[in-house]
Amino acid sequence: MNIRKNRVEKSCGQRHVAPMTMQTIETDSGPHHRRIARAIRFLSDHYLEQPRLEDAATAAAMSPFHFQRIFTRYVGVSPKAFVGALTLEHAKAELLDGASVLEAALDSGLSGPSRLHDLSLKIESMTPGEYARGGAGVSIEYGFHDSPFGTALAMATDKGLCGLAFGDEGEEEKILADMTLRWPKARYGVNSARMCSMAKQIFERGGEVPLHLMGTPWQTKVWQALLAIPSGRFATYRGVAQSLGNAGASRAVGAAVGRNPISWLIPCHRVLASNGTLHGYHWGLPRKRAMLAIEAAARAA
Which of the residues are catalytic? Predict the structure, then answer.
């Protein structure tokens, strides 16, 4: 594996700055993804306690009024709606009932569909021969960007986005190592400007995002099947296998789902165990829970 640049860079020219005062936060008009990611993590960890708006705002280092407005703007639903969806997910039967239960339970704060879903995807797949060569001859650019789900690593070839991964602050090297192992012979280089633009397209602006699927033919078929699962809905591994014409391939489907390199956009988080419970997620169950809650609350709006 050839990585041209060893130092991991933050995208958009992010630098370390001294802790902000509340006055600075209130007047800051720049991106708030890092603070919102902290709030999502806090709410995902404490939703059973029904945390107050003030508690979540403290986790995001914002005033309650500012936090309510920025959270709703970036996530697409209010903090109260987000906690409501998490609470319903905890009770399997209620979650699987879908929008009708959510409409009855989420009594206020719904602001409309999340901005995170206003995307169209243009898909191109790697040939089996290219994948068999471990990415040899492929150049992959990467960069880090704050997102509602923590630090996001975006990776792209000249054909489109090939990787989207998530982690906590300070885990950049770990996330990068995980992803580069998938295509060990590719050439890697930092391109913060390009990845920053892609990340903004995904998490803020919407529009078309080209995808370059880099996997085996079977993995690619499974990943494309995942794209057919509507936002706010769920599927089982067996259900995905049946959609591919092989009901006995649940385990093989599970393996392919676990190797999905483009998290969130290829919605492996919408696949549940056969009994309807949450199953393992490569980037952590709290993120899977948060993704499902955002989609469920947005669909009910």
Answer: 268
